[in-house]
């Protein structure tokens, strides 16, 4: 069993024939991901990268059996693409697009309520189950198969954590890049919960950043449920001054609990093994596992 994506996932690419969609679809196919086609309105019936192009997601679901979608649609249309995928019955939607207006995401998130769908992102690197499926933009060669799950707000730190874990002689079960926008489909706690419930994951790396309360909520949930698996945590933005936005749209210190120091304190109090630097992730994980 894996989390969200595996070798049986039937993946489509929304925005398939665009520059970004083409480049990353090619990388995903080369990795071995089961890409069954893509969607570009008006180009249905043609072929791209030797895969069928459909006019709508509904058509891709009906004709190719698609159950996972990755979205490379420009920001102005991306929320509509998310809702179209959900409406067509896609079970896992990975929205890579950065810069989707907050108002659009509020509507999309509301639309997904009550539907049997998991949205990862937007503004995220995607999801990878090493050796099975890469539904995202991450460099696949960094990730080696193993039993450590990763949940991260940051794309580059997802890759750094994976590299640290692999160099420590361990490997990755599934890595989930949840995205750094103020409104995302799957917050930290929900992603951590998936990995806690995954029998093929022995421990978790949780990477957060300044802004919002996702990490605090996840840490308290981990403690409340009895710290079932070791969790190693890192928070980016330790030197950020109050009121400064860093990188992601959601990475802004709005109150005392939004700082890196406050989040790290809460995580430590909840039994999480907190790293001061991403360079310590592999070594801290070995200690957490008693190796």
TrEMBL record:
Reaction(s) catalyzed by this protein?
Answer: GTP + succinate + CoA = succinyl-CoA + GDP + phosphate; succinate + ATP + CoA = succinyl-CoA + ADP + phosphate
Q: Molecular function terms in GO for this entry? A: succinate-CoA ligase (ADP-forming) activity
Give the keywords, sorted. Answer: Ligase, Nucleotide-binding, Tricarboxylic acid cycle
For substrate, which residues are the binding ones? 159
**Cross-referenced PROSITE patterns, in alphabetical order?**
SUCCINYL_COA_LIG_1, SUCCINYL_COA_LIG_2
What does the record give as EC number? 6.2.1.5
Q: Per the database record, which ranges form the CoA-binding domain? A: 4-100
The UniProt entry annotates the active site at: 248
Q: Gene3D superfamilies attached here?
A: NAD(P)-binding Rossmann-like Domain (3.40.50.720), Succinyl-CoA synthetase domains (3.40.50.261)
Q: What does this protein do?
A: Succinyl-CoA synthetase functions in the citric acid cycle (TCA), coupling the hydrolysis of succinyl-CoA to the synthesis of either ATP or GTP and thus represents the only step of substrate-level phosphorylation in the TCA. The alpha subunit of the enzyme binds the substrates coenzyme A and phosphate, while succinate binding and nucleotide specificity is provided by the beta subunit.
State the similarity comment: Belongs to the succinate/malate CoA ligase alpha subunit family.
Protein name from the UniProt record: Succinate--CoA ligase [ADP-forming] subunit alpha
